[in-house]
């Protein structure tokens, strides 16, 4: 890749990848990853999932959490100035 710098074309050095690229974003998180992101313990998140209070998809006995659900929770929390409980987010377990 070349960049225009100081009136001449120069070779650019690219380090790493753009982590905001939609192709490289995760679509699902393991429960352990989602718990870590949310600052919860795994057992707490499993209880919320099994109780229907947190969105997750069950695949052959294993739960995965859609990244979109976490993004939606974040957006709602920011828009409302916070949420009072994990159960206030609509979701469905499979």
Sum this structure up briefly.
This protein is of the alpha+beta class. It contains three helices and five strands, in the order βββααββα.
Give the secondary structure arrangement, pairings included.
Elements: E1 2-5, E2 8-11, E3 28-30, H1 31-38, H2 42-50, E4 57-59, E5 62-66, H3 67-80
Question: Mean of residue pLDDT?
Answer: 78
Which spans of ≥5 residues are poorly predicted at pLDDT below 50? Answer: 90-94
- N- to C-terminal distance: 46 Å
Q: What is the percent of helical residues?
A: 25-40%
Order of helices and strands: EEEHHEEH
Broad shape: globular
Tell me the total number of β-strands: 5
Radius of gyration: 19 Å
Major beta sheet summary: 3 strands, antiparallel
User: Strand order within the widest sheet?
Assistant: 3-5-4
Note the total helix count. Answer: 3
Output the structural class: alpha+beta
What percentage of the residues does DSSP assign to strands (E)?
A: 15-25%
